[in-house]
TrEMBL record:
Transferase among keywords: yes
Taxonomic lineage from the root: Eukaryota, Metazoa, Ecdysozoa, Arthropoda, Hexapoda
Species for this entry: Dufourea novaeangliae
Protein name per Swiss-Prot or TrEMBL: RNA methyltransferase-like protein 1
GO BP terms in the entry: methylation; RNA processing
Family designation: Belongs to the class IV-like SAM-binding methyltransferase superfamily. RNA methyltransferase TrmH family.
Stored Pfam families: MRM3-like_sub_bind, SpoU_methylase
Protein keywords: Methyltransferase, Transferase
One GO MF term: RNA binding
tRNA/rRNA methyltransferase SpoU type domain span: 218-303
PANTHER family linked: RRNA METHYLTRANSFERASE 3 (PTHR43191), RRNA METHYLTRANSFERASE 3, MITOCHONDRIAL (PTHR43191:SF2)
Amino acid sequence: MVFLNIVHTTFRPLRQLTKLPTINAKLDATRTYVRWASRRPVAIVNEDELYEASDTTRETFAESKKFSSRKSRGRNSTEKTAKTAKTAKTTKATNDVESLATEKKKAFTVLQDNDKIIRSLMIKVKSRKKREKNDNIALEGQRLIQDALRAGVQPKVVLFSNSADIDKLNLPPKTQLYKVPYKTIQLWSTVSSSPGLIGIFETPNIENTAPADDALPLTIICDNVREPGNLGSIMRAAAGVGCEKLILIKGCVDLWDPKVLRSACGAHFRLPIHAFPVWDDVPALISEDSNIIVTDSNFKDEFVSKYDTDMLQPSLGVFDADPESLKSYCINEDSGTETIESEPTSSFKKKMADLLLQLPIVPYYTLDYTKKETVLVLSGETEGLTFDSLNLLKERKGIRINIPLVNGVDSLNAGVAFGIVTFEIKRQFIKKQSTL
């Protein structure tokens, strides 16, 4: 019995092997059936429910359009770019047509770095000697150029780096315009950060500039002012206070020096300026009955003993006093008017000091400046007054005015001292007009 079970167990798998070909045959038949049988249905019972009645061909086409090929997308992008460029070109052409009138007036020439034209133009205005020889000046920046244009000064050449700067200027049609790189303008500029705009003008005649309608009867004479910043400050204050004229004696710094131009801020074109006459020409530029005074900060111990407290009263009117009565305020009565230019420097300085002490000295606020025309002589801080100026002051019975200082300060900047005195003069005129 056991033996039969073993035999039966051994042959059972062999019987199953005979069934495998039958299974494989059925699979082959199924696969063969799939190949030749059609899957298309004979009829659809609920066709109206499955499909819409409307035609969907266009929608299908629209959907397929979203998945267009890369080539089509590239073509569409190219067409869109071309269309945008065409629109921008049309807009630019329209803007060019609108500004055609102004562009015709402002045609310019483009120059490269270190072009010989630039060098030739800038060398002519670089130094005082070159400016005087070529009769040209250089104005840098919008403000100075506009001030010159308002004064009627015509530019010859304008160098610029940005076209927008030219559009802001009302330049004459004949002005030569050169567009140059900014670094080239910076190379020739006199400031650390150039505004990128330089105008070259013919040196104007500013002696005939009309004074302001409400100008004060005040003439300023600058003697030996050699610091550009000081001269520019004096000119600016003179224009601001309303002086009648400004005289720059020969020996002062150049009127058209770039530093003077910047610190003056356009004062060159706002009042009459007589540039660099000698002292022999001064009497013809001032009235004979004018009061001549000179500012002086050297109010030291030698003047204290000669100072009268009555002279501290405001509006004392020293100019109307008898010159002989002012001798009590003089320390040295020697004339000292002989020519001393050939004498040694130490002797020259001593006689200059003696001559200076011949002039009475009073505080600036004690005088009445409203009675006559005033001529104010202002000297430089380091050089001081010249011998010729002191001679004229002594001949015309001039007076020294002093600005009292404290805390050990012995002098003031020339521009500051000038502003203090001139606006005191203006204050007196305003006060006098208010009482009329």
